[in-house]
Amino acid sequence: MFKPIVERLADWNLSLILWLAMMMACGAGILEAEKKNVMSPEDLVVAYEKALASQKWEAVEPLMDSRCTVTFSDGSVHRGIKEVEKAFRRNFALIEDEKYAISELHWMVKSDGFAVCTFVFEWSGRMEGQAVAGSGRGTWSMLKDGGTWKLVAEHLGPKAEG
């Protein structure tokens, strides 16, 4: 009626071994999938440009590190994700139909976990029914966090003269 304890332990050990083997196989598949989904710094640039074009904070926020700092070309500095969110939402509300383009990307540092680049930006849109536009130079610092690249610092300023 009852299996001897030695037989029950053998069954339990076999079950445990099979379960562990299955978990390891599933885990390997998950890790392999994660490797394929890891963004590069270049992917972050493309995603960020698209997110800004959407004029939706919900599209921008996943690309930002929680410790981010953004300095706009007017000199205003926004530190931490909450301040940055407030500034971006204000800009999205003020500038209608904004178009934002990035060009002349120059990578100064690109490693497995950190990247820095400079770029030229141009934007245009409408404020209170009037056409507005601007341009300048920027610097981004990016950090790889848990396999995903995020923007940790953005500094925008005027174009260099000359």
From TrEMBL:
Transmembrane domains' residue ranges: 12-31
InterPro entries noted in UniProt: DUF4440, NTF2-like_dom_sf
Boundaries of every DUF4440 domain copy: 44-151
Top-level taxon: Bacteria
One protein family per Pfam: DUF4440
Keywords per UniProt: Membrane, Transmembrane, Transmembrane helix
Cell wall biogenesis/degradation is among the record's keywords: no
Protein known as: Nuclear transport factor 2 family protein
Organism from which the protein derives: Phragmitibacter flavus
